[in-house]
Amino acid sequence: MPALRTLALAALCAFAFTSISHAADTTAAQQLAHWSAQAGSPGNADKGKVFFTTRHGGEWSCASCHGSPPTAQGKHASTGKSISPLAPAFNPKAFTDTAKVDKWFRRNCNDVLSRECTAIEKADVLAYLNALKP
């Protein structure tokens, strides 16, 4: 029985460590580099700004909830729920968790475009967001 407790404790510690380390497993700059590499070209901040502020055939743009520029607290267009600033210079936690980045790109792109964003669209938006400074 002590061996089972030791194994259970080790598994719990390993789970806790991976959960903690995963919470900040990336940076906005690393995300930009990743999506630029996936796209085969660097993100373009000017294109990202246009993409971010444009409605793509639907009723929302990225800016509808995140603001323009996305440097202050935003508000979800339909629920009214508060949204932290999206630009990394104004929110140090922005784009630091790969799983959350993937989740929110998937959800938000689907809301704005009715499809997932392409790698270059993600790179362009990240280039725009990374370029915003206080």
Automatic annotation (TrEMBL):
Top-level taxon: Bacteria
Which Pfam family is one of this chain's hits? DUF1924
**Which interval of the chain is the signal sequence?**
1-23
Gene3D superfamilies in alphabetical order = Cytochrome c-like domain
SUPFAM superfamilies in UniProt: Cytochrome c
Give the species this sequence originates from.
Acidovorax benzenivorans
Domain called Cytochrome c: residue spans: 43-133
Ranges in a coiled coil: none
State the protein's name.
DUF1924 domain-containing protein
| Keyword vocabulary terms for this entry | Heme, Iron, Metal-binding, Signal
**Looking at the keywords, is tRNA processing present?**
no
Is the keyword Signal in the record? Answer: yes
